[in-house]
Amino acid sequence: MHVSTKPIGEYPWYIRLFFWNQKRRYGEVLEPGMLWGRSPWVFSTLALLYGALDRKSSPLSPVLRSLITVRVSQINHCEFCVDINSATLVRRGVPEAKIEALWQWRQSQLFDPIERIALEYAEAVTHSELTVDEELMARVKQHFDEDGIVELTGLIAFQNLSSKFNAALNVSPQGFCRLPPGPPNHSA
Predict the structure, then answer these.
(1) What is the spatial distance between Cα 152 and Cα 18, in angstroms, rounded to a whole number?
(2) How high is the pLDDT of residue 183?
């Protein structure tokens, strides 16, 4: 990593509570958390935002949320995020074949219409050379109400923040998922 983490005892007590929860949930403290923890107020706010986006009462299904986070992470070359979010997809019952197909979801029949429009929208929001035009938004509105669109857009924006942060600081995967973090090799 480009920035080092500190010994856990050097973080404020309230940040160590977040670390305790990460260790309980993932079996270890997450390196991005330790990096964000260098700025305790930002980390605390970021953790609350993540919790709000990943809540059970979200209008977006847990599987859809995870598909979006993996795809945005792939686009932003965040191997850590692909690793941890792919592991979440596995825990949520998504077959590995579907997770592997996410790199080329447009060519796959494994994605339903709601997933397909959400992934297309996520790509348009994430890629700076693409735009969310009226035609795309009209198709998004066929599947999501306005509250759902706000949640979906917020999730995409959050994952862009998270994956760009981790990619810029060269955070490595922590081995949560056995699937490779990179695109499939299509050498012929």
Answers:
(1) 25
(2) 73
Question: Rounded to whole angstroms, how far apart are CA atoms 45 and 141?
Answer: 30
* Residue 188 confidence (pLDDT): 35
Six token digits for residue 178: 């056995």
Secondary element (H or E) of residue 62: helix 62-75
Supply φ then ψ for residue 62, to 5 degrees: -55, -40
User: Which residue is listed with tokens 């050379």?
Assistant: 129
pLDDT for the residue numbered 93: 95
Q: Which helix (H) or strand (E) holds 113?
A: helix 113-126
Token pair of 46 as six digits: 């970021």
CATH class assigned to 59-181: mainly alpha
Q: Where are the beta strands (DSSP E) in the chain?
A: none
pTM confidence score: 0.92
Which residues of the chain are in CATH 1.20.1290.10 domains? 59-181
Separation between Cα atoms, residue 140 and residue 136, nearest integer Å = 6
